[in-house]
């Protein structure tokens, strides 16, 4: 099961953070079809965020067809975002590229800025329109024991 | 459930015949189903507004309705936790909950109250006078939530609590409120503790309403801009809440009335920036937005 | 404050007699006071039983005596008996305690019952449960009022029982302040006046310590005013004669002096203070008079005192409700 980490300083809307973190967990294979998302109550208790925010994020994920709400049972993953699992070739390529950038003398911020600018160029109409990239966004993912 | 949690028109309250007005000309409408933050500096009238809504104070002028009725009529349907969390020090935690049951015949949910207490690892036999600040707040919240109120009024609930207790209690509070469909109205002068938890904002300054509306709509209605100081005159059609000039650079918070010139760099303000700008400029016009946004369905 | 404010809607599983609602809350919140009062009451009952038990002995100790052979107890033996001293002393102490109960009751009602709750905000805690402020005050007054009425009534009856024949040599004269108050319903209404004045003081000051002080002071004033003007509460009986008359011990003398030939009455104190200059000439004195309350006036005097205290209790209660109503929406 995923655990959401809400960063209030980023300026990214809270529900966007939940959506992004869920997607990231799906991409990395930490969430798989059939897995259960934490209930709104659990998320609210752990993060002290507004319950409506959690519901809004879950509805967004549902709208994108990533999860489905089963009445009385909870919200479950329908499909994964299997484009780049943690051990995919694309990840390896990016890893290689990052190593070369580091060897070329770029530091972490330079790499992040470069990466962000390429992202902006390639994905011009960003999903949530705020166009900001935050390297601060980290993910706290733990495999659910029940899985 | 009633659609409007609190509605006030021309509400005013002053203490004593010659006293200062704690609230003046307040008009507001808080829709039900939200977690509403009542924000403002000390002395802005937050506590007074909550006490009037709780049916503890008589307004000097104007009127206020709670859940569609007079506050005293709504007494069984609302809960209130005062800033200093008054509890009887000689009672045990269990006896305090029993008090809630005895004084709320017919609408007391012992399960909720006990769950809130249990989550805090509280010994039911412990006397209230031996509890820490965070534990006392938890017991006060248990007493309020056990009533299963439609409206929960909290006056500075998290003041003087350590960050851990604050986070835990806020989580418990929001989860229980969401489960019961309770509208929460909480006051605070610490804006940071409300960000993320609240979706409706009521900003009070010097006894008047400065901002009211769904938080997202209020933030969306404002833009932070930076640009050359000379371009200030070009801002005429927009409402400038606050502007500051540093050298040749101008920073301003405004409510755009249309597209902005390209000379300006724009950014979305944070809740704190929004609140501070309004408090620093008392002459800026108030902005009251209706909760027109699609009503969030309760879980 | 004639009825308990709580409505009997207890769940079936609980005993119908068990207190609940506001009644429960008042009893639970003031449990310490309840225990102290209960203890004091038990001690009072025990004392009265003891007094009753030694009553015969005490009476024998002050009875007639004679030399051996006269058929009466020997005087030597009687002087050695001390039952009368114990009886007299303990009974007067217990009577004083009963008469003064109104003072601690007033201080408690002002301080713990009302003032502290307003000061600490716990009153507001109650008012934001499903309880209106007026019902809250009603329960706060009715529960102790009922218990105090029951307790004080029982104490008065026990006191009368232990005093047996009211021999003034042992129990004190009927007009002695404490004995006067504690041998009838005044003892009950005094306590109720203390409760109401204390509660009013609590609502006025809204703080525990000042309320306790104010309640105590108001009750002290009431007690002293009633004692000071007690003899004026019922018309006196007047007696005139040619010589200064000696009133019996059972009479409460109010005034005495001389009747002049003109019919004017001059109190004796005038002549005793200024015997030379202003005192009347012997020639002018036609006779002597005295005004007094005979023992038969005990009940009218007592009932008027009790009625005044009850009226004070009612007025203070009404003022307390009025004040609370004015302050809360």
Structure, explained:
The complex is a heterotrimer of chains A (147), B (299) and C (329). With 147 residues, chain A is mainly alpha-helical. Chain A has helices at 14-27, 40-47, 51-63, 89-103, 108-122; strands at residues 36-37, 67-70, 74-77. In chain A, helix 1 crosses helix 3 (51-63). Mean pLDDT of chain A is 78; it is low at 126-147. In chain B, strands 5-6-7-3-8-9-14 form a 7-stranded mixed β-sheet, with helices on both faces. Chain B has a 4-stranded antiparallel β-sheet with strand order 11-12-10-13, with helices on one face. Chain B has a 3-stranded antiparallel β-sheet with strand order 2-1-4, with helices on one face. In chain B, strand 11 (239-246) and strand 12 form a beta hairpin. In chain B, helix 2 (93-103) packs parallel to helix 4 (133-145) and helix 3 packs antiparallel against helix 4 (133-145). Chain B starts with a strand and ends in an 11-residue tail after the last strand. With 329 residues, chain C is α+β, with helices and mostly antiparallel strands. Chain C has 2 domains: 22-233 and 298-327; 237-297, no CATH class. Chain C has 13 helices and 4 strands. Chain C has helices at 21-29, 31-61, 75-80, 83-99, 102-120, 122-127, 133-163, 168-171, 177-181, 186-205, 208-228, 268-273, 298-327; strands spanning 237-241, 252-260, 265-267, 285-293. In chain C, strand 2 (252-260) and strand 3 form a beta hairpin. The radius of gyration of chain C is 26 Å and the shape is flat. The relative contact order of chain C is 0.12. Chains in contact: A-B, B-C. Chains B and C meet through strand 5 and helix 2 of B and helix 1 and helix 6 of C.
CATH architecture of chain A: Orthogonal Bundle
The low-confidence parts of chain A are 126-147
What is the succession of H and E elements of chain B? EEEHEEHHHEHEEEHEEEEHE
Name the CATH superfamily classification of chain A: Winged helix-like DNA-binding domain superfamily/Winged helix DNA-binding domain
The chain pair with the largest interface is:
B-C, 34 and 25 residues
GO molecular function (chain A): DNA binding; DNA-binding transcription factor activity
Region (Disordered) (chain A): 126-147
Keywords (chain A): DNA-binding, Transcription, Transcription regulation
Protein name (chain A): GntR family transcriptional regulator
């Amino acid at each position: 099961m995923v655990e959401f980490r809400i960063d209030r300083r980023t300026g990214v809307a809270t529900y966007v953070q939940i959506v992004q973190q869920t997607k990231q967990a799906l991409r990395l294979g930490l969430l798989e079809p059939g897995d259960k998302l934490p209930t709104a109550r659990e998320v609210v208790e752990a993060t002290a965020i507004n319950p409506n925010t959690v519901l809004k994020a879950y509805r967004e994920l549902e709208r994108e067809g990533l999860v489905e709400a089963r009445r009385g049972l909870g919200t479950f993953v329908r499909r994964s975002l299997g484009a780049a699992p943690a051990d995919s070739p694309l990840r390896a390529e990016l890893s290689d590229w990052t190593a070369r950038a580091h060897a070329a003398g770029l530091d972490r911020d330079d790499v992040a800025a470069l990466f962000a600018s390429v992202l902006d160029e390639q994905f011009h109409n960003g999903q949530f329109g705020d166009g900001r990239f935050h390297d601060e966004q980290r993910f706290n993912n733990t495999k659910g024991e029940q899985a | 459930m009633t659609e409007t949690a609190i509605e006030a028109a021309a509400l005013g309250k002053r203490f004593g015949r010659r006293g200062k007005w704690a609230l003046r000309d307040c008009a507001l409408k808080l829709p039900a189903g939200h977690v509403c933050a009542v924000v403002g500096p000390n002395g802005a009238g937050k506590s007074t507004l909550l006490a009037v809504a709780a049916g503890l104070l008589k307004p000097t002028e104007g009127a206020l309705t709670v859940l569609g009725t007079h506050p005293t009529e709504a007494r069984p349907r609302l809960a209130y936790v005062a800033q200093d969390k008054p509890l009887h020090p000689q009672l045990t935690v269990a006896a305090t909950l029993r008090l809630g049951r005895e004084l709320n015949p017919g609408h007391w949910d012992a399960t909720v109250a006990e769950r809130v207490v249990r989550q805090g690892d509280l010994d039911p036999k412990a006397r209230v006078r031996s509890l820490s600040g965070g534990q006392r707040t938890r017991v006060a919240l248990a007493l309020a939530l056990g009533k299963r109120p439609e409206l929960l009024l909290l006056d500075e609930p998290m003041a003087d609590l350590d960050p851990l207790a604050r986070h835990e209690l806020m989580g418990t509070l929001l989860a229980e409120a969401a489960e019961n469909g309770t509208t929460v109205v909480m006051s605070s002068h610490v804006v940071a503790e409300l960000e993320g938890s609240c979706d409706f904002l009521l900003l009070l300054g010097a006894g008047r309403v400065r901002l009211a509306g769904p938080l997202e709509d209020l933030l969306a209605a404002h833009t932070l801009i930076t640009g050359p100081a000379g371009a200030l005159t070009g801002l005429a059609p927009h409402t400038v809440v606050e502007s500051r000039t540093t050298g040749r650079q101008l920073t301003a918070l405004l409510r755009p009335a249309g597209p902005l010139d390209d000379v300006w760099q724009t950014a979305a303000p944070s809740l704190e920036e929004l609140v501070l700008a309004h408090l620093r400029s008392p002459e800026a016009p108030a902005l009251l937005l209706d909760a027109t946004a699609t009503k969030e369905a309760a879980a | 404050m004639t009825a308990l404010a709580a409505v009997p809607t207890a769940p079936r599983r609980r005993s119908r007699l068990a207190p609940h609602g506001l009644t429960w809350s008042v009893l639970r919140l003031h449990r310490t006071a309840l225990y102290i009062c209960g203890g004091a009451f038990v001690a009072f009952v025990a004392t009265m039983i003891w007094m009753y038990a030694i009553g015969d002995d005490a009476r024998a100790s002050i009875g007639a005596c004679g030399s051996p052979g006269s058929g009466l107890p020997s005087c030597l033996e009687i002087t050695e008996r001390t039952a009368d001293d114990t009886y007299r002393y303990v009974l007067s102490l217990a009577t004083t305690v009963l008469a003064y109960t109104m003072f601690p009751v007033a201080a408690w009602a002002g301080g713990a019952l009302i003032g502290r709750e307003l000061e600490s905000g716990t009153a507001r805690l109650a008012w934001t449960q499903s309880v209106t402020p007026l019902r809250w005050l009603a329960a706060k007054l009715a529960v102790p009022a009922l218990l105090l009425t029951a307790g004080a009534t029982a104490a008065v009856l026990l006191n009368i029982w232990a005093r047996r024949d009211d021999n003034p040599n042992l129990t004190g004269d009927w007009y002695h302040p404490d004995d006067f108050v504690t041998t009838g319903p005044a003892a009950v209404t005094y306590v109720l006046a203390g409760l109401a004045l204390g509660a009013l003081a609590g609502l006025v000051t809204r703080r525990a310590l000042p309320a306790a002080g104010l309640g105590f002071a108001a009750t002290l004033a009431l007690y002293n005013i009633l004692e000071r003007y007690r003899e004026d509460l019922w018309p006196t009986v007047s007696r005139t004669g040619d010589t200064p008359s000696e009133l019996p011990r059972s009479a409460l003398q109010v005034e005495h002096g001389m009747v002049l030939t003109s019919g004017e009455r001059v109190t004796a104190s005038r002549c005793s203070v200024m015997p030379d200059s202003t005192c009347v000439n012997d020639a002018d004195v036609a006779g002597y008079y005295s005004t007094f309350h005979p023992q038969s006036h005990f009940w009218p005097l007592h009932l008027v005192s009790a009625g005044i205290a009850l009226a004070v209790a009612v007025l203070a209660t009404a003022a307390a409700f009025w004040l609370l109503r004015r302050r809360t929406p």
